[in-house]
Design goal:
The chain is α/β, with parallel strands linked by helices. The chain has two domains: 8-170, Cobalamin-binding domain (Rossmann fold), CATH 3.40.50.280; 198-492, pyruvate-formate lyase- activating enzyme (Alpha-Beta Horseshoe), CATH 3.80.30.20. It has 18 helices and 17 strands. The chain has a seven-stranded mixed β-sheet with strand order 2-1-3-4-5-6-7, sandwiched between helices. A six-stranded parallel β-sheet has the order 8-11-12-13-14-15. A two-stranded antiparallel sheet has the order 9-10. Helix 5 links the parallel strand 3 and strand 4 (106-110). The chain starts with 7 loop residues before the first strand and ends with a strand.
Length: 493
């Protein structure tokens, strides 16, 4: 296939912008991961004949000003960016650099934030087009239009664009693609695989997804366009695993599916195929406690499962119901007990300060987390993210004046809000988070268990790295005052 003339540059923003309240040093202890969104898009348009490059500012520890020369040298006609809500200010900074460096380039932005605030995002004139929803087919059509001279954006479903008069227009919605196997694996050759790292992962590691969508509707989650669940075929998934192990020596794969363990037959088929090919790469997954049983865990362990991450969020059934989590304490205890008995490491995620939670609920959550026999735990203070039930309630109850995140988009940033309710002040929530970390990680039984494992030295190194993060959290509670941001019952994290 002859290469087309339209060159496409993908740039991943530096995530220091969305790591609050941790410092850059502490955040990077937790991990720097490949951008599957941009890597997947790059592979797709390259497969269709377009020359591509990818710059990951985060893993390179660079900022837009540092890569001006590389952008000029490649001289792309299209520059593609992706944005999560918290990373929006950093994405604007990249777009402004590109606009100044290459005035005639088409600057396209996609990602989760565009599925909520696409029109508001285009009030920033450094962007030309926002992609709403799945990006592959939309973006390929944009590239094809540019190849033919550009324009005609109104013919492409699934975008918001600025016309020649400056008016911001939205095209009709695009139907979700059912067959996601048609998309190639991530363009791993464009990424410095050995440079990505994470405190608790074997190196080198890679990341993958095997599904798109999530049928559950937890009240704190800002998943959009995700109710319809779509699967990659087992063959397609294991092909990529085999490629990563053989080509890059990858020792562990992180599956970032919202819930990996959907469908017992699918889990059996996956495990059998991995074993049939004789792969030795380990993997870890995200799951719901109500999708875990002994048969599934045992099958996955035989295939190389190293760790399961599950969102617990609350230690009382009352708060779990408020969250619409659709699980119970009993299911949680059972799921983690099975994992422990089958020799699989576990990490639980917990949330402090949800609306209508009491001080007793928080204390019960901290106690519950410490008693589950987990290897790792993460505690967060509830944040009302856009397009969530939690954010809707915050608006209805006056915890926030107006649509904060919409204004954040238009303003290009601002103090990230932490939810305060009638029950908790921001200071109390931060103190509870520190208490949770201290109670969990300073338990003698946890330290003894980690050091008793065959990889005890590695476990010790992980815990020493984790101490950096823990000290940041403690310092933020003891020494950092929380200024008012003047928007109702919210305070800066």
């Amino acid at each position: 296939m002859s290469l087309k003339k339209t060159k496409v540059l993908f740039i991943k923003y530096h995530e220091a912008a969305d790591q609050q309240p941790l410092s850059k040093k502490a955040a990077e202890k937790l991990g720097i991961f490949p951008s599957l969104a941009l890597g997947g898009l790059a592979a797709w348009v390259r497969q269709n004949g377009f020359p591509v490059q990818l710059i990951d500012l985060h893993v390179e520890n660079k900022y837009p000003k540092d890569v001006v020369g590389r952008v000029q040298d490649f001289d792309p006609q299209i520059v593609a960016l992706t944005s999560k809500t918290l990373g929006w200010p950093a994405v604007i900074e990249i777009a402004q650099m590109v606009r100044e460096t290459l005035p005639n380039a088409l600057i396209v932005v996609g990602g989760p934030h565009m599925s909520i605030y696409a029109e508001e995002s285009l009030t920033w004139e450094c962007f030309d087009i926002a992609v709403v929803g799945d990006g592959e087919d939309v973006f390929l059509e944009l590239c094809e239009h540019m190849e033919q001279g550009g324009g005609g954006w109104d013919e492409i479903p699934g975008i918001v664009y600025r016309d020649k008069s400056g008016e911001i227009l939205k095209t009709e919605s695009r139907k979700l693609t059912k067959d996601i196997d048609k998309y190639p694996m991530t363009a791993w050759d464009l990424m410095p695989v050995t440079d990505y790292h994470c405190l608790t992962l074997l190196k080198p590691f890679a990341t993958m997804v095997t599904t798109r969508g999530c049928p559950w509707k937890c009240g704190y989650c800002s998943q959009v366009y995700s109710e319809k669940l779509r699967f990659r075929s087992i063959k397609h998934v294991v092909d990529e695993m085999e490629f990563l192990e053989r080509q890059y020596g990858v020792k562990e794969i992180v599956f970032f599916d919202e819930t990996f363990t959907i469908g017992k037959r699918r889990m059996r088929n996956f495990s059998e195929e991995v074993q049939r090919r004789g792969l030795s790469v380990k993997f870890n997954i995200r799951a719901r406690v109500d999708t875990i049983d002994r048969e599934v865990v045992r099958a996955l362990k035989k295939a190389g499962l190293r760790s399961i991450h599950m969102g617990v969020e609350a230690g009382t059934d009352r708060v779990l119901k408020i969250m619409n989590k659709q699980i119970t304490r009993e299911q949680t205890e059972r799921a983690f007990r099975i994992c422990r008995e089958e020799g699989v490491d576990t990490r639980g995620y917990f949330m402090i300060g949800y609306y209508d939670a009491t001080h007793d609920d928080v204390e019960d959550t901290i106690k519950f987390a410490a008693g589950l026999g987990l290897d790792w735990a993460s505690f967060s203070v509830a944040t009302a993210l856009p397009a969530t039930d939690l954010y809707r309630i915050a608006n209805e109850r006056g915890y926030v004046d107006g649509d904060f995140w919409r204004q954040y988009t238009i303003d290009g940033g601002g103090d990230i809000p932490q939810l305060e309710t009638e029950t908790f002040t921001a200071e109390q929530l931060r103190a509870y988070r520190t208490k949770a970390y201290m109670k969990f990680y300073l338990r003698p039984d946890l330290i003894r268990r980690k050091l008793s494992k065959s990889e005890g030295r590695e476990e010790l190194m992980e815990m020493m790295g984790g101490a950096t993060v823990l000290s940041e959290i403690v310092k933020s509670t003891l020494f950092k005052k929380i200024p008012s941001v003047g928007i109702g019952k919210w305070a800066t994290v």
